[in-house]
Every structure is written in structure tokens, then in C-alpha cells.
Amino acid sequence: MKQHYSVAIVGGGQAGLSISYCLKERGFDHIVFEKHQIGYAWRTKRWDSFCLVTPNWQCQLPGHPYRGAEPNGFMQKDEIVRYIEAYAASFNPPVREGVEVTRLWQNEADDVFELTTTNGDYTADQVVIASGSYHQPKIPRIAERLPQHIVQLHSSEYRNPQSLPDKAVLVVGTGQSGCQIAEDLHLAGKQVHLCVGGAPRSPRRYRGKDVVDWLDQMGYYDLSIDEHPQKEKVRTKANHYVTGRDGGREIDLRQFALEGMRLYGRLKTVSNNTLEFYPNLKQNLDQADAVAESIKKSIDQFIQNHQIDAPTEPPYSPVWQPETEVLSLNYE
């Protein structure tokens, strides 16, 4: 088996496969190391009702744009796996599945990179790391303060409401995963307690189009990091919460509160049998709304500047406000 390649790619997800496609198109010999199997994370690290938050037409892997019957729909988990598998089948990339790279270093004397893998040693002129940055669950130390009889799951381990005990559930965090899992539990009739963090939210549709369509038309997705107003800082920003579920809709935590979900500020500490929260629920809800409204204003400005004929919408009005902030909760 060949042991030296012009390029070695670590990771066989959609990024690694895309790089492989472009290299193969240009005639570069290369190899892709995938620790598990193609589509592994989508297949095993997502919950049952998971779906994309961006429309299907935005799936534009190099040489393999979405060609299905629902360009404005939102692929569910199994469809995403099939899409990525079909992509790999379309150009037969040199992927070594089940091979983990355990060490990588640069041999400056020989001007090569050396890779130790579970399938032997390799060298390459160039190496692309395409393994992503979400493989290790980020679990705060505060979780250690909860007793062992309390079931704790990271979002990557959650599958469906039926897999949890028949009790109330606390969801900590309101990024995309937290909000969508909270909704999944809420729709199943679970009593949900939600710690609301500082993640922003996005409108789903505005003035006749999905917001993603507007942003694409505005050139937002063509911006490089250097051109983005926030520069490098944008890399660390949480994704705006929204969902593609049931054809796509906004996630309005205030509406959930009206329907019985209980909202709190960020989790502060666990003491004895009590959860304590920061008094920032209203602040976080207002900030999330402000971001959503700023997106709408940028669309309004674009419509005005280009004299586009688009329907108008009434201004946003919060459907619920926290009259008082609940700062503690006994979990026993």
C-alpha cells in the first residue's frame, strides 16, 4: 500500500470530502482518513427529529448541489446521511474508513508531514485537518454537583423524549441544539425548564421569503472573514436559534412560556437540592429579539435600496414578559 501522498486529509465528513473532490478534480494524489464512517456524526450524534435549519437548496457540496424535490424544505437526519453518502459515491474519494490519526508532526529535515494512524504510518507533503471541533462534549464542571440519580445527557446523546424518564426536564443553554431539544420535549408534553443563555435568535421568514434567501441575495454568505463586520470574532458567535422542523418556523421562547415551559436565566450554581439562576432572563430574551430585529432591519434596508416589491409586515411585539425572575428551583 502506498505510504506517501501529496495531501493527507484528516476527517471524512462533508469538509474532508469536499477537499477530496477538489483535489481529485485537479489531479492531486491524496488520501482521506476517517476515524469512523462517512456520515458518522450525522448518523449517531443527532436526535431523531433533527433537521437542517437552512433550506435544502443551500446544500452545495462541490460538484453535488441538492437536486431533490424540495429545494425550500429542510432535510431530516436520515436524508442528510443519504445526501453525504451519495456525494461520496459520485466521485469515489480515496477514503480509509475506520482509520484514526493518532499523531501528526512535521519532519522538517525531510520536508514532509508524518502521520501515525491505526493502519500504519504515512507521510504527506501537505495535511488538511478537516475533523471539526465538536467531537468532545463540552460539559461544565457544575454538572458534577448534581447527584448520580439525576439523568444527565449531552445534546449529542439525546435521541427522543421517550428515551428520558417520565419526569420534568431541565435544558441548559439556548443555542440551536438546546432550543430545538427543548421544543422536541415540549411538543411531546414534557414539563420543560429552560435556562436561557445569550444566544441570538433569527426570524424564519420575513417579507415573503425565508431569511436565508434574503441573506443569500444580499451577498452575506459570500463574505470572507476579512470582509465580515465582526472579523475573526464572528467565529466564536453562537448560531442563531431557529428551526427547519415541520417546514421551518421561528423558535419564540416567549410563546413556549405562554404554553407552560418555564424559563430562567443562566444556571449559576447547584447547592444542596437547589438550582440557582442568574437574574438575566429578561435581558437575554430582549437581546435575542434585538438581534432578530436587526436582521429584519438589514433586509428592510436592502429592499429599500434596490426598490424591491415585497410585502410588509407589522413590527414584532413580544407575546410574553417575565413578571418576576425565578432565581431558584428545588429539583427533588
Summarize the structure in words:
The protein has helices at residues 14-25, 40-44, 77-91, 176-187, 211-217, 253-258, 281-305, and strands at residues 4-10, 30-34, 60-61, 64-65, 95-97, 101-107, 112-117, 120-129, 169-172, 192-195, 205-206, 209-210, 262-264, 267-271, 274-277, 328-330. Helices cover 25% and strands 21% of the residues. It is globular and about 65 Å long. It starts with a strand and ends with a strand. It has a six-stranded mixed sheet with strand order 5-2-1-8-7-6, with helices on one face. The chain has a three-stranded parallel sheet with strand order 9-10-13. The longest helix has 25 residues, at 281-305. By secondary structure, the chain is α/β, with parallel strands linked by helices.
Quick structural overview:
The protein is α/β, with parallel strands linked by helices.
SSE layout and pairing:
Elements: E1 4-10, H1 14-25, E2 30-34, H2 40-44, E3 60-61, E4 64-65, H3 77-91, E5 95-97, E6 101-107, E7 112-117, E8 120-129, E9 169-172, H4 176-187, E10 192-195, E11 205-206, E12 209-210, H5 211-217, H6 253-258, E13 262-264, E14 267-271, E15 274-277, H7 281-305, E16 328-330
Parallel strand pairs: 1-2, 1-8, 2-5, 9-10, 10-13
Antiparallel strand pairs: 3-4, 6-7, 7-8, 11-12, 14-15, 15-16
